[in-house]
Design goal:
With about 240 residues, the chain is mainly α. About 75% of the residues lie in helices and about 0% in strands. Helix 6 packs antiparallel against helix 10. The two termini are about 20 Å apart.
């Protein structure tokens, strides 16, 4: 069986599930709105202008995580959908690769538009404080932000395949990001720089001040994502649908 028709079928699933489309809309709306709000906060005027303009990404990523987990967990509701999918595509690795590719394509497309809109809204709010942003910084922020959101969605998809539950996946990831990373993360020293969210978000900063640079941080997030996808693929192959 060819990859292309399997990918098209998974792409069709995403387009026809309203909850997934609503999650993508939330990704755009939340990221853009909070970037605009953060930019007009006087306390942020002296902060990193690139990160301030794209700061909505830190909340928008929750929608990306929800999209990745829901796209997979929908298959496991009562087990019917995943059994039907694997009957149509007996090669489980092929099916999982096509699903991951469809998730990545959808999130990347929306995230590119979202990151650009967030940057424009945030820069407008910053006013003169945004004058120091170079074209290279802005391009890196938009492209890097889109890739980061895509990796986080795939990270959630891999964990959802491993856990076979969207609720369980979000119950692990959201507290991890909102509590461990932001609340107690600084107490962990340089270890926090290698967490999947904090590492990837270095690409959003004009001048990263941690252990990792913009692209090395994104590479760390990519490694976390690859590990989650491999773990999900392992369980998919080893256990019954």
């Amino acid at each position: 069986m060819q990859f292309a028709p399997v990918f098209r079928s998974e792409w069709l699933k995403i387009r026809t599930v309203r909850s997934l489309l609503a999650t993508l809309f939330a990704l755009f709306a939340v990221t853009t709105a909070f970037s605009a709000l953060a930019a007009v906060d006087p306390e942020d005027q002296g902060a990193d202008p690139l990160f301030t303009a794209l700061s909505g990404t830190t909340l928008g990523q929750i929608a990306a995580l929800a999209f990745g987990s829901l796209a997979v967990s929908a298959e496991y509701r009562e087990g019917a959908a995943v059994r039907l999918s694997l009957t149509a595509v007996p090669r489980r690795g092929l099916w999982f690769a096509a699903k991951a590719a469809a998730i990545a394509a959808a999130v990347l497309a929306v995230s590119l538009v979202t990151s650009l809109a967030a940057l424009l809204a945030g820069s407008a709010g910053l006013g003169d404080a945004a004058d120091g942003l170079t074209s290279a910084d802005q391009v890196r922020g938009v492209l890097g932000g889109a890739v980061y959101l895509t990796l986080m969605a795939l990270f959630a998809a891999g964990l959802a395949t491993l856990l076979r539950s969207g609720v369980a996946t979000l119950s692990v990831l959201i507290p991890f990001i909102l509590i461990v990373s932001f609340v107690v993360g600084d107490a962990l020293g340089t270890v926090v720089d290698f967490m999947p969210d904090r590492a990837g978000q270095t690409v959003l900063r004009g001048e990263p001040d941690g252990t990792l640079g913009p692209w090395t941080g994104l590479a760390v997030t990519a490694c976390w994502t690859a590990a989650a996808l491999l773990a999900g693929a392992w369980r998919l192959r080893r256990q019954d649908a």
